[in-house]
Design goal:
510 residues, alpha/beta, UDP-N-acetylmuramoyl-L-alanine:D-glutamate ligase, TIM Barrel, 8-stranded parallel barrel, 6-stranded mixed beta sheet, 38% helix
């Protein structure tokens, strides 16, 4: 029996949520500092609490003002979080000796699993955020407590009394010297390394050096990269990953966000922010389809097939363009045999075509590709990722369709947050092996039970589409077609023929 006021769950049965506490300054422009830390942790799916050490007035031009938070209130924030929550800690801007000492004292009182120290002293734009008086306290008290420190070249030089860092060998020497000061791991970031075509970072754990290289991304939108990298490392460590893996994942994450954001335009200064959540660009592009899902889009649903395109010597891009020109109202890319890299490039080109014509484009099964390409949604089968998981990954605005053969499956699709169901195969088809058909009666049964709009699929073409639509249920909105469009010499002509037949059957009045 549970005692009055007791917990309903034992400590062992409760799931620990990965949790990072960031101790840093607030950036009014939201590119760096606390704001970047929050966004980075959110992107890495880790909960983030905050202790604010300073308020800054800054934008893409630079820092116009800094106001430190009183030390006693920093201490109060720290105790409030650490006395209640199990966290890993990431530090950023620590603007005074007193605040550094306060942090160290509190961490001795409330030990944490991991401490990631980003020794923020100078902003990338050159503004001083922590004076030289703090250096000795950093070196004597904070660094020996750290599981990893993540200085850039300027910060590493400052910590090493002005040591010049101009080569990768210099970075290795700096990492070794900094490690001798007490931190378990040192990551010297070489983003500003002169005459280097790569972004080179050096990780040293006291035994081994790891040289982490990646192509340099040419962009002005680099504000907050240091904060974001350190927060991402803390996030991965909070998930339980070893330090080397955490650093590698964090570095790849920041690179991906920088590459995605290189054309985003925010502010008028020389250094803009980047988009941690990989969402902004789609909303800033004029060609982005921003309308909510419209069931009438299911009217003529064209599903591509890589084997058919190969058989007829056409690219997926040519197939999609021809289907749209013929009257297709929604496109699904079902490319089971294509390599992921090739599929991604083709999907991006198809999305541009679809957006120009106002036609939504979905990806079959591959949620990862849909996210990377900013497709309008996905279609999943019963053996694929559950719709509720796809909805969690894609967000509320994307379209999700589910293949269903029974009223029970249709009900589950509605519960899981799908937008429509694809019911079939209605007729036998050669596009899927061992595909059980439901027939017209099965289609009608599912339609009558479904709370979602329905598109019929499976063996449908000009010869039988009218019979499908004549079952006359109000939520049957169209037909999905594969072979009848794409296993033909002229996709455009076949699509137009089917489109005209569907219009002539007066579907809109059902």
């Amino acid at each position: 029996m549970q005692e009055k006021g007791g917990s309903t769950l034992s400590d062992d049965s409760r799931t620990k949520t990965p949790h990072v506490l960031t101790v840093a300054g607030s950036d009014s422009g939201a590119g760096a500092g606390i704001q970047a830390d929050l966004k980075a942790c959110a992107a890495r799916r880790v909960y983030c609490s905050t202790v604010i050490t300073a308020l800054t007035a800054q934008n893409t031009v630079g820092v116009q003002g800094v106001s430190n938070v009183p030390e006693d209130f920093v201490a109060q924030q720290l105790k409030s979080v650490l006395s209640d929550m199990q966290v890993d800690v990431k530090t950023g801007m620590l603007p005074s000796v007193g605040i550094v000492k306060t942090l160290c004292k509190t961490l001795r009182e409330f030990p944490v699993h991991a401490l990631v120290v980003d020794p923020v002293m100078v902003s990338t734009s050159g503004d001083v955020l922590a004076g030289p008086s703090i250096l000795s306290t950093f070196l004597e008290e904070l660094l020996p407590m750290a599981d990893i420190i993540t200085p850039n070249l300027k910060e590493a030089s400052a910590l090493l009394n002005g040591m010049q860092l101009e080569t990768v060998d210099d970075m290795r020497s700096a990492a070794r010297l900094l490690h001798n000061m007490g931190p378990k791991n040192v990551l010297v970031k070489g983003g500003d390394l002169p005459d280097s075509s790569d972004a080179v970072d050096i990780l040293y754990n006291g035994h081994n050096f790891y040289e982490l290289r990646s192509p340099r991304i040419r962009t002005r939108n680099t504000h907050g990269t240091g904060c974001s990298l350190a927060s991402s490392i803390a996030a991965e460590v909070a998930k339980g990953y070893p330090m080397l893996s955490a650093v590698k994942v964090a570095k790849r994450f920041v690179e991906t966000a920088l590459d995605y954001s290189k054309e985003i335009d925010i502010g008028n200064g020389p250094q803009g922010p980047f988009d941690h959540l990989l969402r902004l660009k789609s909303h800033s592009q004029a060609c982005h389809r921003q309308q909510p899902f419209d069931p009438s889009d299911l009217f003529l649903y064209a599903v591509t097939d890589s084997r058919m395109n190969k058989r007829w010597g056409r690219s997926i891009i040519d197939a999609v363009k021809a289907a749209i020109d013929g009257g297709a109202t929604i496109i699904q890319l079902r490319e089971k045999d294509a390599e992921t890299k090739d599929f991604m490039e083709s999907a991006k080109a198809c999305i541009r075509i679809c957006r120009l014509h106002g036609v939504p484009l979905l990806i079959n099964d591959r949620v990862d590709v849909a996210i990377a390409c900013d497709a309008d949604g996905v279609h999943v089968g019963q053996s694929d990722m559950p719709a509720r998981v796809a909805r969690t990954l894609l967000g509320p605005e994307k379209i999700i369709g589910v293949s269903c053969k029974t009223p029970e499956q249709a009900e589950q699709a509605w519960v899981d947050g799908a937008d429509y169901i694809g019911c079939g195969g209605v007729y036998p088809t050669n596009t899927k092996e061992n595909n059980i058909t439901v027939g017209l009666n099965g289609l009608k049964t599912v339609c009558m039970a479904s709370k979602l709009p329905v598109v019929a699929i499976g063996g449908i073409g000009v010869s039988n589409a009218r019979a499908v639509m004549e079952i006359r249920t109000s939520n049957l909105k169209g037909v999905a077609v594969v072979s009848a469009l794409f296993d033909r010499e002229c996709v455009q002509a076949e699509t137009r023929k089917l489109h005209e037949m569907l219009l002539g059957s007066n579907i809109g009045s059902t």
